[in-house]
Amino acid sequence: xxxxxxxxxxxxxxxxxxxxxxxxxxxxxxxxxxxxxxxxxxxxxxxxxxxxxxxxxxxxxxxxxxxxxxxxxxxxxxxxxxxxxxxxxxxxxxxxxxxxxxxxxxxxxxxxxxxxxxxxxxxxxxxxxxxxxxxxxxxxxxxxxxxxxxxxxxxxxxxxxxxxxxxxxxxxxxxxxxxxxxxxxxxxxxxxxxxxxxxxxxxxxxxxxxxxxxxxxxxxxxxxxxxxxxxxxxxxxxxxxxxxxxxxxxxxxxxxxxxxxxxxxxxxxxxxxxxxxxxxxxxxxxxxxxxxxxxxxxxxxxxxxxxxxxxxxxxxxxxxxxxxxxxxxxxxxxxxxxxxxxxxxxxxxxxxxxxxxxxxxxxxxxxxxxxxxxxxxxxxxxxxxxxxxxxxxxxxxxxxxxxxxxxxxxxxxxxxxxxxxxxxxxxxxxxxxxxxxxxxxxxxxxxxxxxxxxxxxxxxxxxxxxxxxxxxxxxxxxxxxxxxxxxxxxxxxxxxxxxxxxxxxxxxxxxxxxxxxxxxxxxxxxxxxxxxxxxxxxxxxxxxxxxxxxxxxxxxxxxxxxxxxxxxxxxxxxxxxxxxxxxxxxxxxxxxxxxxxxxxxxxxxxxxxxxxxxxxxxxxxxxxxxxxxxxxxxxxxxxxxxxxx
RNA sequence: GCCGAUGUAGCUCAGAGGUAGAGCACUUCCUUGGUAAGGAAGAGGUCUCGGGUUCAAUUCCCGACAUCGGCUCCA
Length: 645
Description:
This protein is 35% helix and 26% strand. The model has no long low-confidence stretch (mean pLDDT 94). The longest helix has 22 residues, at 65-86. The protein starts with a strand and ends with a helix. The protein folds into four domains: 2-61, Roll (Ubiquitin-like (UB roll)); 66-233, Threonyl-tRNA Synthetase, Chain A, domain 2 (2-Layer Sandwich); 253-536, Bira Bifunctional Protein, Domain 2 (BirA Bifunctional Protein, domain 2); 549-643, Rossmann fold. The chain is α+β, with helices and mostly antiparallel strands. It binds one RNA strand through strand 12, strand 13, helix 8, helix 11 and helix 18.
């Protein structure tokens, strides 16, 4: 007999061996029909693998994240089976489950798979699924496994096998398809009731751009057709929030082929919004002890040779600017830090004045690969809300914490609640690619980890993601299609102070090396605005939005009165437009609703007589009648609740 | 940079080997209105660009450029 503890704490006794599926059946038929995998003492397992000793058991359904992942992983195998049947001779790389489904990397030789083929693949998958073929696990010797894939001619699987130890290798077979796989899987293909191939893309074998590019097919499956329909609807809704779409519709920014790829043009409304964001941060930075500085858009090539960036990135950047003097070369500024280092060096510094904090909204230029450009999130000219803090080693942690506070303040004002703080540390196995002493790195990494912990951040640690000159803390936010982008960033740098020979005089009257912290709460204005647009679906916080209110005269007779009102609103620091088009009220309301204008004031005879206004809130409808003072108060309350003042 | 797809009016999209269409937006006129689309007329296109095939190419083929989805990269 073994004792099995279920998630609710209850303990059941069974004759050993017994499978999780049998236990599910013993609980209820319905459960047995819906259960996909088992979690045995924190290990996900097949429902059919026997339990031989006391354990904790959770039965996973599609609602459970692990259940979903198991089903999607099994679906990758099903897609592979379909592909093999449609395109004989296709070879397989890896096929994992991911957050929104699964993919499989395949090599289909001469044949190219395109969107036209998706329908046939989906159909084949469902056809194979309907046979309810069980996923059969088999432990196999390495020799046999190699023989199998040699016979099949699949060099990718053979390469994967090289890294596996004999005795740990398992195969899974469903229907006519066998794959190298450690599992687990759902009991049989019958659970897959709806399948959709989502996209096709190239992907380098093992993520190495020097190796062959395989075809990556992305898909998703569901246990119910209705769930797929809902999912596709959700994706469509998300696509409507795409900042590229909204940026165009709301006339915030544009690109022109005549100007160049990845070089954004800020339109008046977008520039106004950006300006407001800058003012907001500048104010916060003055309060936090930053000194504004301004530096040019180009700098001597030598400056970047000193910083080490030319050596590392020069080849792939915008090329040096030539001058009449042959010996001179300049670079478009790819970063602000070297300039700020030179500002630091303009005079001797005492330990008493540290930390000094130089802040600049500095526009930088980087030649990003053409395939990487993406709306405003990845461009070739962008403005960083940059600042560099020069401090003593003993001040690093304190300064770091202050910057975290600033980032959190910014995120709160813009209602960014969902973000992850990513701590990027050195690659544990390859410390060669980093500049700086072991001791300094250890200190910096510890300082970041401590600061993040003390500020109560939810963090993920990524090894190997650090910059070459120091560890960093990045604030990651997802876009409408759940792609993750880095916004705020804080980076410790022991390298540049060294390279620029920065010093300060300590209390001991000796020269010491300051530590530098790079930081940007927004990251870049471009990317931040992009993510902000998607985050709020184009409906910006009231304090930011270009037009806070629309004055709508009911007929042309009241246009003058509407103009007068908008001037009055200006006195209250309320930004209002007058919609004096020759259209009916209903039409004007509709258009201003669609343009996401937060408030509307309809004016006609009644308003002119009484000096009170009917206020309508975007998306909410009529709020009632207000005096101008009362309306201004609504707006001010709204603003204060987001940025305080 | 690599793999795949796409490129027609300001926007969203139809279309076909015989030099182009819809809806919205725009302009003008009528209408002067009370809370999510009033009516009529008009204007708007080197069908991304460059080659080739053809009597004829925006359509078929090749190339470039740009955009989109990924991969790699991201100071």
